[in-house]
Specification:
Blueprint (H helix, E strand, L loop, with lengths): L2 H18 L3 H21 L2 H34 L2 H11 L1 H23 L6 H30 L4 E4 L4 E4 L2 H5 L2 H32 L3 H36 L1 H8 L11 E8 L4 E8 L2 H7 L9 H28 L5 H10 L3 H5 L13 H9 L5 H31 L6 H9 L3 H15 L4 E3 L3 E2 H4 L5 H32 L5 H18 L11
Helix pairs in contact: 1-3, 1-20, 2-3, 2-6, 2-8, 3-9, 3-20, 5-6, 6-8, 8-9, 8-17, 8-18, 9-10, 9-16, 12-13, 12-15, 16-18
Family: Belongs to the cytochrome ubiquinol oxidase subunit 1 family.
Keywords: Cell inner membrane, Cell membrane, Electron transport, Heme, Iron, Membrane, Metal-binding, Oxidoreductase, Transmembrane, Transmembrane helix, Transport
GO biological process, one term: aerobic electron transport chain
Length: 536
């Protein structure tokens, strides 16, 4: 198979997937924040909270629609560009996305209409329930998609059937409760909550700097700072859990992220910065923090984290066992029911390493004919490109720390300093709006690029997964997707900017009337307190 074909297929899927993920975090987080705001409205009956729900709900709706459009397009690529992957593992991989469409997407799509058009047709409590159902549906969608993705990283609950030449599901609950999928889900949704919180903080800070919609902005900051701080802290905890799960089932990915070329005595240090050299197989000018990587990767001070070189040696043995499995599989395939029991026994003993033999198809048509040099090269092919992984992970972690600092600062000033925010902090929040998206994209890059050269870890190499298309086909569709997505991106940005500039435009009179009556009641009771300018 042509390398150019595989690389173009990967580029197209990476472009569409990472573009789609621009919308996912904000949808996850805003759905929860909007539901919280409407809950406060139901509890307090203050129109300002209804106005806030409608305003942030409008921005959620714009983002939701664009996310649906890009998500549907992305899923079609499994059949178009990755047909052999779909054939090989479709019995397993197809189930979670199908359940997501039936259970979560229909729930979310149905109730999102009631949310926007049911304000005057439903009671306050019923509409609040609808808001929470939209939020639950959004998060359920992420759950099932991440179960499918988690299986690609840790393929449990399935076996290869030598008679059908396909993976078949053997334990649905093992797929459902896959430890990688569960840790990835909670980490991803928490990152989405942080994204929405920083977005709300940034837009609200802009309003305070402009002296517009200050009541809405101050209350939005109060909700977003508390919710964002809790979410940012949970991202750290859940990220640690994700790192531990990776250390158990994807040792090569963990070693590549850390640029750990040699096995280090326990407990392994964490490399804060350095310059990984893939050719020299060492990291130059490394600055290390003792013990930290051992705690993250093994949760102990006595267990080692295996280095890249030792993992390659292990994988060379797996390539050799994979050749034995491949030889037995060819015998079974040729002789079918007449295949000797000895061949089936050899296959069963070595079937878990069959995917490693497939790595040799990059060099020879029949893995049984591979030379010693090709076997050694196939073992080194299991090492992903280290420098991009190393730096992407550290960008993600560094930004994650900044989100904790930013949300904590706003939470402290809101809770204990009467909402007096220095202008530099408000401008910082505005400038920091894009950063959660950068962190999220870096996280997905680490997760997916770090799995290479596998589409399904240890089972199916990426080079075997692609459809038999032509370079011209891929270039044409890639250009079409780029044009289509560029148009969608322009539409998204223009709509968002339009409604942010417009500000809260619904229930304005009702909110202003309530505020005047409320201030009059405070004056008559002698308890009115002037509201300080929070931008001072």
């Amino acid at each position: 198979m042509e390398i150019g074909l595989v690389e173009l297929s990967r580029l197209q899927f990476a472009m569409t997937a990472m573009y789609h993920f621009l919308f996912v975090p904000l949808t996850l987080g805003l759905s929860i924040l909007v539901a919280i705001m409407e809950t406060v409205y139901v509890m307090t009956n203050r129109p300002i909270w209804r106005q806030m729900t409608k305003f942030w709900g409008t921005l959620f709706g714009i983002n939701f629609v664009l996310g649906v459009a890009t998500g549907i397009t992305m899923e079609f690529q499994f059949g178009m560009n990755w047909s052999y992957y779909s054939h090989y593992v479709g019995d397993v991989f197809g189930a979670p996305p199908a359940i997501e469409g039936l259970m979560a997407f229909f729930l979310e799509a149905t109730f999102v209409g009631l949310f926007f058009f049911g304000w005057d047709k439903l009671s306050k409590v019923a509409h609040c329930v609808v808001a929470w159902l939209v939020a639950i549906g959004s998060n359920f969608s992420a759950l099932w998609i991440l179960i499918a993705n988690g299986w690609m990283n840790n393929p449990v609950g399935a076996e290869f059937n030598p008679d059908t030449m396909r993976m078949e599901m053997t334990d649905f609950f093992a797929v459902l409760f896959n430890e990688v999928a569960q840790s990835k889900f909670v980490h991803t949704v928490s990152a989405g909550y942080v994204t929405a919180s920083i977005f709300v903080l940034g837009i609200s800070s802009l309003y305070l700097l402009q002296g517009r919609f200050t009541d809405l902005a101050r209350r939005s900051i109060a909700v977003a700072s508390a919710f964002g701080l809790a979410s940012a802290l949970s991202v750290v905890v859940l990220g640690d859990e994700s790192g531990y799960a990776t250390g158990q089932v994807q040792k090569m990915k963990l070693a590549a992220i850390e640029a750990m070329w040699d096995t280090h005595e326990a407990p392994a240090p964490f490399t804060l910065v350095g310059f990984p050299d893939q050719e020299a197989r060492e990291t130059h000018y490394a600055v290390e923090i003792p013990w930290v990587m051992g705690l993250i990767g093994t949760r102990s001070l006595t267990e080692e984290i295996t280095g890249i070189k030792d993992l390659v040696a292990e994988n060379e043995g797996r390539v050799r066992r994979g050749i034995i499995a491949y030889d037995a599989l060819m015998t079974i395939r040729e002789e079918r029911d007449a295949a000797p029991s000895e061949a089936r026994f050899r296959f069963e003993q070595n079937s878990m390493d069959l995917g490693y033999a497939f790595l040799l198809k990059r060099y020879v048509d029949d893995p049984r004919e591979a030379s010693e040099e090709q076997i050694a090269q196939a073992a080194w092919d299991t090492v992903p490109h280290v420098p991009p992984l190393f730096w992407a992970f550290r960008i993600m972690v560094g930004l994650g720390v900044s989100f904790i600092v930013l949300t904590a600062a706003f939470f402290w000033l809101t809770s204990f300093r009467g909402g007096h925010y220095p202008r530099w902090l408000l401008w910082g929040a505005v400038a920091w709006i894009p950063m959660p998206w950068i962190a999220a994209e870096m996280g997905w890059f680490v997760a997916e690029f770090g799995r290479q050269p596998w589409t399904v870890s240890g089972l199916l190499p990426t080079a075997m997964s692609a459809s038999h298309l032509t370079i011209a086909d891929l270039l044409f569709t890639l250009a079409g997707f780029m044009l289509f997505y560029t148009v969608l991106f322009v539409i998204e940005v223009r709509l968002m900017v339009k409604y942010i500039r417009k500000g809260p435009f619904q229930d304005v009179d009702e909110t202003d009337d309530w505020q005047r009556r409320h201030e009059a009641r405070l004056r008559s009771a002698g308890t009115v307190t002037p509201i300080a300018n929070p931008a001072e």
